[in-house]
User: Fold these one by one.
Assistant:
Number 1:
Amino acid sequence: MSEWSSANVKATVSAAEWQTRVDLAACYRAVAMMGWDDLIFTHITAKIPGTDHQFLINPYGFMFEEITASSLVKIDLQGNKLDDNPHPINPAGFVIHSAVHAARDDAQCVLHTHSLNGVAVSAQKDGVLPLSQQSIFVLASLGYHAYEGVALLDAEKPRLVNDLGTKHFLMLRNHGLLTVAPSIADAFQMMYVFEAACTIQVRAQAGGELVRIPQAIIDGATAQSKQVTRGMGGMLMWPGLLRRLDRRFPGYDQ
């Protein structure tokens, strides 16, 4: 792995960018810790505060638990590198993320996974079922996007953006899960709920007859979530998650 000085990077970026780098690196490691990573594939992107179209993405070839604040690559909406980082990125992987970032002003962070349970449910005709408390929060803001093959072509972007709309959860059919949020912490928290809903569903389907939650309860889920978790819940959970990472995966802030 090439050397990339954290001291040099920190000295040349704004305080806001460095904090975003630290939080995004922590998010990558948290995804690895939860077992949602797919080796070096999939991405989590974050907009750099105070910029219009500057983002941070993982260096291609790094395992998620290896990513640090300084190793993240700064790019624009076309996937062009904007710094001297020696590491490459996967331009194909940024097709989905660039579409969402360009269309949604609130898309501070876009988190995408290929987890086994997430892909399993994405391959089911009825998608996410109202089977758990976790599922009602997902269903309250969920879109679906049909599989069009590996996301390589810009022609897919308008359809993806249309399917997402103003929602925070997107199920990519036969592909995986995606969350969109105004903060890195919220994107992670929402993915935790998304993943939990899918895992519970797969396990429940292996048992007896399923009991579905009524639509009226799903309709009230957004208001309930804000009351219980002070919004999306990310900022409430994030400090504790960082403490866990400090114990198990230290060094993300380098």
Number 2:
Amino acid sequence: MEIESVSKSGESTMSKAVEHLRADLVKIRAGKANPAILDGIMVEYYGTPTALSQVANISIADSKTLSIQPWEKPMLAVIEQAIFQANLGITPMNDGENIRISIPPLTEERRKLLVKQAKAAGEEAKVSIRNERQKLMNFIKKEVKDGFPEDQGKKLEASIQGLVNNFSAKIDEIVKSKETEVMTV
């Protein structure tokens, strides 16, 4: 790896950490129906674990209800069981044609718990960014030791620290936004 490409690869990795955080926070429901809360649920489809979205149409019936319509009727029970096993705190209702999921209103205690989850996910993203910074800083120090100009190494370290600060601020902003969304009744 060339030292010039080091900050680009670091920025890419940090950007992925922020995108991963966004994807994680979408799964934290804020009392509104959102098909994304079912992302990651796998169902057994002819012996193969398959994403729920690949075997059924997931739509929003109203602001508090999700509707799941499987492509094949025998999948109803399998999908229902997969949702129970995912332990999302929601109960699927099978009417023989569709599965409906009513999103219960959040209690104050549950909202605080969800905010804690969001903050923990934000902290995980920050740790990932700090680990990347450490890896890059070690690489730069090694290169400086091997003959790379020290002043350019210091500039690169400062630029990487700037990236870390920017991405940390983005993470704080994303978590704060999710906290506001969850705590709004």
